[in-house]
Every structure is written in structure tokens, then in C-alpha cells.
Design brief:
109 residues; four-stranded antiparallel sheet; 3 helices; elongated
């Protein structure tokens, strides 16, 4: 489990796969042994951009799969689980709040 903490926002908790996915997108996950980290205020705009880009790509991929199924006269695919957007939005909000107040986000400490 990942617990993201900051002095500017409430704690945000994510299960391992989801936390690792988010950290991979923002370039802060190098492997399972990488359980601690920090996101500095100067890194936050790039992290937000990376997350928003990943969400847009995920949604475009899902829309393309639905279109392809409809074009083939098939039922649209059922996507399992929660979308990346729903997982990323709380973290993006935390990053924005912390960036505004110039406070870092830490995890695993």
C-alpha cells in the first residue's frame, strides 16, 4: 500500500498496483524495491502533465476499442476496474494543492 503525505494536503492511500502505476507515469518508480520517495514542488508541473497525458491516452484507447467494436457490429468491450482518470484525479488534486503551497509529497516514510 502507498500512503502519500504532505503538509499541504490530507493523506492519499493507494493499493500497490495503483500507486506503482501512478509513480511509473510520473517517473518515480523504478521497481518493487522502490518504496520510498519524494515529489518536490519544482517536479510537480511535469508530474501533472504526465498524468493528464496518460489519462488522455487511456481514454483515447478505450474510445478506439469501442469504435472498432461498433464498426464490426459487435458489443462494445466491458472494461474491468476503475479507469486511470478516476485513480489519477485525487493525486493530481493533491499535487496542485501542494505545488500552490510549495510543499513536497512523500511516500514510504
Amino acid at each position: 500500500m502507498y500512503k502519500f503525505k504532505s503538509r499541504a494536503a490530507g493523506d492519499l492511500i493507494m493499493l500497490d498496483p495503483n500507486g506503482q502505476q501512478i509513480l511509473t507515469i510520473i517517473g518515480k518508480f523504478d521497481g518493487p524495491a522502490d518504496r520510498k520517495g519524494i515529489l518536490l514542488p519544482e517536479q510537480m508541473p511535469a508530474a501533472i502533465e504526465a498524468l493528464e497525458s496518460a489519462v488522455a491516452q487511456d481514454e483515447a484507447r478505450r474510445a478506439q476499442l469501442i469504435k472498432e467494436a461498433q464498426d464490426a457490429g459487435e458489443a462494445p468491450p466491458a472494461f474491468e476496474g476503475i479507469s486511470l482518470r478516476l485513480r489519477a484525479v485525487p493525486f493530481i488534486a493533491m499535487i496542485r494543492r501542494c505545488h500552490k503551497e510549495d510543499k513536497e509529497i512523500v511516500w514510504g516514510v
